[in-house]
Design a protein that fits this description.
The chain has 223 residues and is an alpha/beta fold. The chain has ten helices and seven strands.
Amino acid sequence: MPAVQVLAIIGQKGGNGKTTTALGLAVAASIAGRDVAVIDLDPQATAANWSDRRGKETPAVVSCQVSRLAQVLDAAAKGGADLAIIDTPGKSTDALIAAAKAADFVLMPLQPQLYDIETLASLKDVLTLAGNPLAAVFVNRAPTQGKRHTETQEAAAAQNFTVCPVVIFARAAHGDAGNIGQAAAEFEPDSKAAQEMAELYAYSSIALQKGGRREKKRISRRA
């Protein structure tokens, strides 16, 4: 049985768009023909509630406790999923570490504001405790005017983070789609919101392959 690829979305603040990103990527992956499971570690169960509104079986969304993550990932693989996306709560270091440890690739949404930039040091600690998985910061919910997104990318790069070149701008389609259990790619397929999320999915797909190969090399060296 082939192993499921695992993408973790982590961040130290609530409200930085982790769930919207996880669901947007899950829909993009489903459109691309992948069998996707979203693992919702947030006690608020926002992703699970989205799935209830959606009323569709794909992508599958499973709400679980951090202590059950390994078992749920194993069940997802046995059920035929080839991609699992872990949505994490804010301000739960245990959940972030567990998700990052399980991941082939970690994405960290960062809003272009000082409050978010100040969390980078603690995110670096999380990645260290998780064994330094392949990871990248991306700017999320950026204003469509001005240069805040580039300034934020520069701030992250200055702290030695890998910075994803894709920027997700603040667009109403993301919220409007979520209200009815959709993603922007379904709600407004030709929109800039849908295009940006598709670009983030393409970037993540390449990174997942790199992360998986790196983990295999690490296991073979241990053996």
